[in-house]
Amino acid sequence: MKLAAFDLDGTIYFDGHMPEEVPEAIAQWRAAGNLAVVATGKSPHSARRALELFGVEFDYFLLCNGTVIMDGDYELLYESHVPPEVVRAVYERVRDIPKLDLYCTRLEGPDGYLVRNVEGVHNPIISEPEAVAPERIEKEVFPLVAAWTPGNPELQKEIAQWVTDRFPVGTAMNRNFFDITPPGHNKGFALTWLLEHLSRERSEIELITLGDGHNDLPMHALADVSLTFPWAQPDIQEACTAVVDSAVKGLIHYGA
């Protein structure tokens, strides 16, 4: 059995658009008896909203950087969430920082935001989030919390350092986002969970991963073949088996 795990943003989905050859290539991959899996930082709502426009189907979804796992019908198989005391502390730390947004994903419904201080900059990843009142922090569960600091990597690093110095959480920095997840959770964790869920020996599955971000590195580390792209950062390119021009070309060449 072959399993291909696809990141979304920057891999097969680009600011609301999907290359027209992607749905057909994934359909052919699945028709050949292989598994196609989404591995993304997006929430269930955002992933479904992005993909349903293109009629592309997958066998499993590894969402919110590995804290939520769903089957191909978006039925929940596994979930975890950021402890509310962490969400509260991060909110209090960043609430008054200019040019920073603090987003929170949900198991159901649209993504939310606790802080929205960025003005005049298009966010290509999270669209139309809903305001979440601070008093809801202890009443809801958030699988992933993300600070967005467009054009300010130093602020991103400062917030990341502050969080990791105080809390044993999972973290990932990807472009302008700093993601916070429950301890031990990332795309590699979710992919490992899924492989065990399939009840197949690891040697029976040829694993191909495709992704362009730092949050893809944990799943790339598990792969038989890991693929990234020319626009990925140099350290990501160095960590992968090959750099390919597109996900479809990589799937055809290395998945045949």
Principal-axis shape: globular
CATH class of the largest domain: Alpha Beta
How much strand content do the residues show? 15-25%
| Rg over CA atoms | 18 Å
CATH topology of the largest domain: Rossmann fold
InterPro entries: HAD-like_sf, HAD-SF_hydro_IIB, HAD_sf
GO molecular function, one term: magnesium ion binding
Organism: Corynebacterium aurimucosum
Protein name: HAD family phosphatase
Explain what you see:
With 256 residues, this protein is of the alpha/beta class. The protein folds into two domains: 2-79 and 185-255, HAD superfamily/HAD-like (Rossmann fold, 3-Layer(aba) Sandwich); 84-181, Hypothetical Protein, Haloacid Dehalogenase-like Hydrolase, Chain: A, domain 2 (2-Layer Sandwich), CATH 3.30.1240.10. The protein contains eight helices and 14 strands. The chain has helices spanning 21-31, 44-51, 84-94, 153-166, 187-197, 217-220, 234-239, 247-255; strands spanning 2-6, 35-39, 60-63, 68-71, 76-79, 101-104, 112-116, 130-131, 145-148, 170-174, 177-181, 206-210, 225-228, 242-243. An eight-stranded mixed sheet has the order 5-4-3-2-1-12-13-14, with helices on both faces. It has a six-stranded mixed sheet with strand order 8-7-6-9-11-10, covered by helices on one side. The chain is globular.
